[in-house]
Design goal:
With about 90 residues, this protein is α+β, with helices and mostly antiparallel strands. The chain is built from two helices and three strands.
């Protein structure tokens, strides 16, 4: 049986947020997570945080394709397909 794991990772963490039976369900939760991370990056960008890091994070997190998104070394949402024994 296949399951789809949704989470986010960075240089010092890997956090699983949900597990789904279908890729469609996983994509919905992945997008919710991506939008949450994007809102946080935009909020920090508006606060006038130094350097272009926040601008780059907003650009990276604006990618709507879970297979192409890359926000390294910062929090990057992901979907992983795993096979589990029944």
């Amino acid at each position: 049986m296949k399951v789809y794991i949704v989470g986010h990772h960075g240089p010092e963490h890997n956090m699983i947020t949900s597990v789904h039976k279908t890729r469609k369900g996983a994509i919905k939760k992945w997008n919710d997570l991506r939008l949450y991370l994007l809102r946080n990056a935009k909020r920090n960008q508006k606060k006038g945080k130094p350097d272009d890091m926040w601008h780059e994070m907003v650009k990276n997190l604006s990618c709507k394709d879970p297979d192409k998104i890359d926000n390294y070394p910062h929090e990057t949402p992901y979907i992983e397909e795993r096979t589990v024994n029944e």
